[in-house]
Amino acid sequence: MENHKKAVLLLADGTRYEGIAIGKIGTTGGEICFNTGMTGYQEIYTDPSYFGQIVINTSSHIGNYGTIDAENESASVKINGLVVRNFSDIHSRFTADNSLQNYLEEANITGIAEIDTRALVRHIRNKGAMNAIISSEILTDEELQNKLSEVPDMNGLELSSFVSTKETYTVGDENSEIRVAVLDLGIKTNILRSLAQRGVFCKVFPAKTSVKELLEFNPTGFFLSNGPGDPSAMDYAVQTAKELLELDKPMFGICLGHQILALAGGLSTYKMFNGHRGLNHPVKNLELGNCEITSQNHGFGVDRELLNKQNEIVETHKNLNDKSVAGIRFKNKKAFSVQYHPESSPGPHDSRYLFDQFVEMMKKEKEMV
């Protein structure tokens, strides 16, 4: 790391950190957030839910096992920038396809290393999520502040249409009787893999696909994916979810899909102070009484106030760290959702049963036809 250029991280509140450049030499901005996962950095960087954000890895050693193409969670790196403590130019995993440095350079990702990420995370935990800028070519505060002022606020920002597929595609056995129309709001590859492993044939549609086109696939059920941005800025997806609810077919939503489903049911969402991003979030299944350790990545949540005032939607899961809503189920519809990632990748497998639950729901639907 001795030959690396100097780099600067400047937060919107004026806090400045100096370190060394990693990835591509350049300048990048976005909302800064932290992920507490001890592994799975490549999956984090390629998760479309991070589109428009700068990620801090709280694990102190990053890059030591390189990258493998098969571990990407989408077709490209989606983060805007990267902040780490100790960055490794070399890697020890003999099966790796690339070093993390080359991987970031090829993806045009600018980052900074050799800063006190523990102090930085404590600062953000106290002050809340905010915009930031990283540069290894502009080092004066005045120039950085000017660039930082151009970075859009995540509140009210619609981003799914930027990361969603442009063309439909299929995953799984085309001869399967269980067919799922997937609304791609920024889907992770392992979600589709988890469905296909259970015998589901998935057709993935762009975020702004009409219900009419979804129905032409003759699906057994519908899936609303994870993704980036503010759900309240996605009227198109909320309207689609409303129309799908009227059909009363099995429907499952994850993360952003959970928020969209909640909005379609008349609930509201809010911007969280920091959000939840990591692999160790405890969630209680309120219907079974079990506790799950979950993988999470979201900066918005479902507001409990309206949930408590109505009788059509039941809270099924609760985050045990802050008591936020982690799952819902419609009483009189075949629709449910969770605020976390049961497909993990990276993370624990405690919540994989939710895919089984969705498949069983669709099998019953087939039996009734």
UniProtKB/TrEMBL annotation:
Top EC class for this record: ligase
Lineage: Bacteria, Pseudomonadati, Bacteroidota, Cytophagia, Cytophagales
InterPro entries: Anth_synth/Amidotransfase (IPR050472), CarbamoylP_synth_ssu (IPR006274), CarbamoylP_synth_ssu_N (IPR002474), CarbP_synth_ssu_N_sf (IPR036480), Class_I_gatase-like (IPR029062), CPSase_GATase1 (IPR035686), GATASE (IPR017926)
CDD domains: GATase1_CPSase (cd01744)
Name of the protein in its database record: Carbamoyl phosphate synthase small chain
Described function: Small subunit of the glutamine-dependent carbamoyl phosphate synthetase (CPSase). CPSase catalyzes the formation of carbamoyl phosphate from the ammonia moiety of glutamine, carbonate, and phosphate donated by ATP, constituting the first step of 2 biosynthetic pathways, one leading to arginine and/or urea and the other to pyrimidine nucleotides. The small subunit (glutamine amidotransferase) binds and cleaves glutamine to supply the large subunit with the substrate ammonia.
Family: Belongs to the CarA family.
Quaternary structure and partners: Composed of two chains; the small (or glutamine) chain promotes the hydrolysis of glutamine to ammonia, which is used by the large (or ammonia) chain to synthesize carbamoyl phosphate. Tetramer of heterodimers (alpha,beta)4.
Pathway noted in the entry: Amino-acid biosynthesis; L-arginine biosynthesis; carbamoyl phosphate from bicarbonate: step 1/1; Pyrimidine metabolism; UMP biosynthesis via de novo pathway; (S)-dihydroorotate from bicarbonate: step 1/3
Record GO biological process: 'de novo' pyrimidine nucleobase biosynthetic process; 'de novo' UMP biosynthetic process; glutamine metabolic process; L-arginine biosynthetic process
Residues that coordinate or bind L-glutamine: S49, G227, G229, L256, Q259, N297, G299, F300
Gene3D superfamilies: 3.40.50.880, Carbamoyl-phosphate synthase small subunit, N-terminal domain (3.50.30.20)
Residue ranges annotated for the Carbamoyl-phosphate synthase small subunit N-terminal domain, each copy included: 5-135
Enzyme Commission designation: 6.3.5.5
GO molecular function: ATP binding; carbamoyl-phosphate synthase (glutamine-hydrolyzing) activity; glutaminase activity
Catalytic residues in the record: C255, H341, E343
Region feature (CPSase): 1-178
